[in-house]
Amino acid sequence: MQRARRAAPGPLPVLGLLLLGALPGLWTPEPRPAAGSPPGRWGWGRSPAARGEPGGGQKTFRALLAVPAAGREERGGGGRTSASAPPPAGGSPPVERGIFWSRELEEQVPPGFAAEEAAAWLAAARAARVSSLERGGCGRSSNRLARLSDGSRACVRYGINPEQIQGEALSYHLAGVLGMQERLPPMALALVEARGRQWEPVRDELRGSHWAEGAVVSLTRWVDNLTAVVAPAPWGAEPGAGRRLQPLSAGELGGLPPAQLVELVQWSDLILFDYLTANFDRLVSNLFSLQWDPRVMRRATSNLLRAPDGGLVFLDNEAGLVHGYRLLAMWDPYNEPLLRSVCVFREGTARRVAELHRRRSAAAELRRRYRAREPLWARLGFLSERQAELLQARVDFVHRHIAHCRAQAAAL
Fold this sequence. Notes:
alpha+beta
């Protein structure tokens, strides 16, 4: 289990950035769903390729590590590698100062859900009435797809227990504290009241849903035309063959197409975010499943989808912060090595982590944002004192890891 006081990362072999995509030149974008194809879990029709099924033409993924171990020789030569990768054809170097994505590369990352757009949707969703509730398309059978009176749609999540809804809400607002909320669909809490104005049009549907009167549910904006994302494949080895990432030279980043580099920028945020929230219901659960399913990494990553513009969408974060913190002993053996495998970061993300570390204010900042932006926050409450300590401890660990990566890059 992660403790409130944790030693700095040890002198493990330095792992660089997990690189999505196949070897340079082999990556193939996933096809868009065909018109009229049936919606999947979150409004996305999935072809065999999008599902990672045989015959879909989807390539497997490989890790490229942007900061090699000190003293490692460049492949094919006797000299040591540079901490900054050379530029891709026709562009500037993708990595600056050894551990930060270049500003030029960050500017190419799809904008996701802009703050103004998210605020407008949340205000409209809170004021709208629920016109209908439909089964399917939003995960487990207790959830519903809601059509709202303003014409929009939302997934209504009814948790198995309240801590799942609490985890979803707190993860959404922690993403805001970290400056990566644009990667998560807008989410608001709602109170189930059969005779209330919001739910009155679907009173009969509520009776059939078996939702408890007065329960808190989450409303998450429905997003169309999302496609599956296959995870990096270093963990896809056959059981017993070893799943350790093999570091490659930073120079190999320079040969990658810009689209792959742009996706890597988003993955570096995702892995950091999932470590802080202790979310085991995404890539970590796939890693765990390798022990009985050696092909799991060739299939879609749970709760991660890609928008038509290439932006990654971090969905279903209900395992984060609350439920995940109760299960640290089980899942940290997967979550921690995953974090250590990333040694290139968005500079803004690293800066926010450093500030939360310096001020020891992670829980306080999250609480302030949660209370200011979620009218129903008191219905679910906040983190316990122990959970708040764990959040700060994990921020501190990430900060030390980033410092470790920086020191390794400076030594090259």
